[in-house]
Amino acid sequence: MIAFFSRTFGYDYPFPKYAQACVTDFIFGGMENTSATLLTDRVLIDERAQLDSRRAETLVAHELAHQWFGDLLVIKHWSHAWLKEGMATYSESLWLAHEYGEEMGHYARLEAQREYLDEDATRYRRPIVTHVYREAIELYDRHLYEKASCVYHMLRSVLGDEMFWKAIHIFVKDNAHATIETIDLIRAIEKATGRNLMFLFDQYVFRGGHPDYKVAYSWDSDSSMAKLTVTQTQVESELDSKDLFDLKIPVGFGYVEKTVEKTVAAASAKKFNKKIKTLTQPQIKTFSIRIHEREQSFYFPLEQKPDFVSFDVGNHHLKTVKLAYPFVQLKMQLQQDLDPIARIYAAEAIAKKGSLEAVKALAAALQAEPFWAVRMEIAHALGKVQLDQVQDALLVGLRDESAHVRRAVVLALGKFKTKLSYQAVKAIAEKGDPAYTVEAAALRTLGAMAKIGIAGESKEKPVLKLLKAALKERAGWNELVRAGAIGALAQMKTSEAALGLVLDYTTLGVPEALRLAAVRALGTISRGQSEANLERILNRLEEISREVAFMTQMAVLGALGSMETGGRSPFCAACPNPHRTGG
Fold first, then answer.
1. Are strands 30-31 and 19-23 parallel, antiparallel or unpaired?
2. How much helix, strand and coil, in percent to the nearest 5, is found in the chain?
3. Confidence of residue 236 (pLDDT cuts 50, 70, 90)
4. For the chain, which residues make up each domain, given as ranges?
5. Is the pLDDT reported for residue 13 higher than 70?
6. At what angle do helices 436-452 and 460-473 cross, to 10 degrees?
7. 2-204 classified as CATH 1.10.390.10
8. Do 342 and 308 form a contact (C-beta atoms < 8 A)?
């Protein structure tokens, strides 16, 4: 990894040594002290955890990248911290692509994009570079890490690999052992390429937000013309232009019949269960379009009707996109587009059709798709289609070689409250799975099923018995499985017996990871409990809140934040008015 980053950043590792120390009670994932990184002891995983976990590896990559971006190059001001945190986060996907194949890097970028989009949609929107904060730690959010990593990748896609890395090498060499701010990166790009990319910085770095695209496609056979209508839905009217984005987006039209065979590389087959399969190589005819208005229509003269349409070829731009394509084009995109992100977007759009035809297409792709991450996303998409036939398609996925996919299938099956889905999930909960995460998901899903009942029949007693046994017998790495059982109990919100079990595991002496899960679960299970049991929960949280351990206090706050008591909290005894304790 040190050799890879030395080559990538164009600067040999800059210090005489590199040490990593794993410490307990560490409230962050890692901290890049110069030449000596601290890591949480949760990165010390066993072989079973390694089946479907790459977090330890990406965390090591992230903190190592900081030796260049953060320690060799030091930010001049907190508001420019994206320069280091964005590159360190981007370096995670760079390493995955190098070690396990480009598709792994693509999917890591999609995960980063989703993290940012979730914060933007549910919490707040801000510019990446801002001086508006009370404490510097407030800036260390999904904008600073994940969105910033997407910005680095967009710069790379606009400049091309050769020019982007030339600019990064100049940026590092010219500022080694010195302080930096955003203008220094802009100058390095100009020095390396002669290009001014302020338009991208102005839109993505110095202001908040991103474009939300809706893309509609149609074909006119009389004129042999493809039509794309692109709407920026983040803007309500043409008069509100301040939130419009002005970008050049590549659009590709794919033709499957003109193909050559291509064998998917199996570099990641051993560790991440990537299937080896021969795919067809579609011919892509690409155009670049400038999208700068709220709604624009583009016409493309083509020799023949395309088999599929790929908006933003490679999906390099940070955005959201809703595809309003005919079913046939979406199906072909799912089957043939070489970009895994495009295949995922196609699966999501197909699922929204909600038809039996959509289920058949997704079911076929769940078995044929070579990349585990796309199969996992297909399983999630299937879970959103409320047709009985979905269950048969998902059951096949329980035999998938990838633990990621099996876990997604279990979660999707949990949305179908039938005897078939219940028995399938219960079998995994009883017998276990090679991966901790799959077994934990089965237990947690079973709790949600028991809460509602199956086909009018209560499953509370047998599920409680299974969960109680799991809590006694299934200790393991980071208590993932037993925490899954606690999560299952938390779903059984009206069960006093379930509450009693959760309370038992909030006592001192219980392994910390399991105890913290139980403390957090008190907030969830409280929502359906009686007034008397609610008082028990609040009293227990008040007692635990007196402990000084940081993670314990955070767990208490998490529990309180998810409660909806509708009554008075013992934490606010001085308040004369009853109120919710949730924030």
1. unpaired
2. 55, 15, 30
3. confident
4. 2-204, 211-353, 354-416
5. yes
6. 150
7. yes
8. no
Over residues 139-184, the pLDDT tens digits come to 999 999 999 999 999 999 999 999 999 999 999 999 999 999 999 9
Give residue 117's region: left, alpha or beta (phi > 0; psi -120 to 50).
alpha
Q: Give the count of beta carbons closer than 10 Å to the beta carbon of residue 577.
A: 6
Sign of CA dihedral 297, 299, 304, 308: negative
Task: Categorise residue 580: left if φ over 0, alpha if ψ from -120 to 50, beta otherwise.
Answer: beta
When mean pLDDT is compared across 51-55, 63-67, 127-131, 158-162, the lowest value belongs to 51-55
Orientation angle between helical segments 550-561 and 531-545, nearest 10 degrees:
150
Q: CA torsion 48→50→53→54, rounded to 10°? A: 180
Token pair for 13:
């590792």
Kindly indicate whether the domain formed by 354-416 is annotated with CATH number 1.10.238.10: no
The set of residues, in sequence order, having a beta carbon less than 8 Å from that of 228 and lying 6+ positions away, is: 215, 216, 217, 251, 289, 297, 298, 300, 309, 311
The pair of structure tokens assigned to 440 is: 């934990």
Q: How far is CA 254 from the centre of its chain?
A: 28
User: Could you tell me if 514 and 505 are in contact, meaning their C-beta atoms sit under 8 angstroms apart?
Assistant: yes
**Residue 454: DSSP 8-state:** B
Identify the CATH homologous superfamily for domain 211-353: Aminopeptidase N, middle-beta domain (2.60.40.1840)
Band (pLDDT 50/70/90 cuts) for residue 451 is confident
**Token pair listed for 406:** 């099996």
Q: Is the pLDDT of residue 31 over 60?
A: yes
**C-alpha neighbours within 13 Å on the C-beta side of residue 564:** 4
Burial degree of 320 (CB within 10 A; 0-12, 13-18, 19+): middle
Find all residues with CB under 8 Å of 255, minimum gap 6, and list them. Answer: 282, 283, 284, 285, 304, 306, 307
Measured distance CA(24)–CA(578) in Å, rounded: 40
Alpha-carbon Rg for the chain, nearest whole angstrom, is 26
Question: Which residue in 465, 413, 417 sits closest to 442, CA to CA?
Answer: 413
